[in-house]
Amino acid sequence: MRSRYSAYVLGLRDYLLASWHASRRPPHLVLDPARRWLGLDVRAVREIDPDHAEVEFVARSRVGGGRAERLHELSRFVREGEHWYYVDGDIRP
């Protein structure tokens, strides 16, 4: 999760796509260059089994001079071989 957040901060689109599970990976990803990421708070990590896990997090960002926004998500990850892949997530209120 932290590596994907860092990739958003650094604008590493190729890394984000490569770390997305092939079954759910979008064909392309457009990142907003005006978005500035302000912080990540990992709230909980739950190992479901050795190859499946969930991460609850809040990421804060701002576009231009606008108000800060929060993304609160429960993300699902799967391990294949030695690598973890983002599958999908549910947005929390």
What do these coordinates show?
The structure is a single chain. With 93 residues, the chain is α+β, with helices and mostly antiparallel strands. It has 2 helices and 4 strands, in the order H-H-E-E-E-E. Strands 1-2-3-4 form a 4-stranded antiparallel β-sheet. A hairpin with a 2-residue loop joins strand 1 and strand 2. The longest helix is centred in the N-terminal third of the chain and has 9 residues, at 2-10.
Question: In terms of topology, how is this protein built?
Answer:
Layout: H1 2-10, H2 13-18, E1 35-49, E2 52-63, E3 69-80, E4 83-91
How many beta-strand runs? 4
Sum up the overall morphology in one term.
globular
Major β-sheet annotation: 4 strands, antiparallel
* Beta-strand percent range: over 45%
Rg, Cα atoms, Å: 14 Å
Class by helix and strand content?
alpha+beta
Q: Describe the strand arrangement of the main beta sheet, using strand numbers.
A: 1-2-3-4
* Average pLDDT metric: 97
Give the helix tally: 2
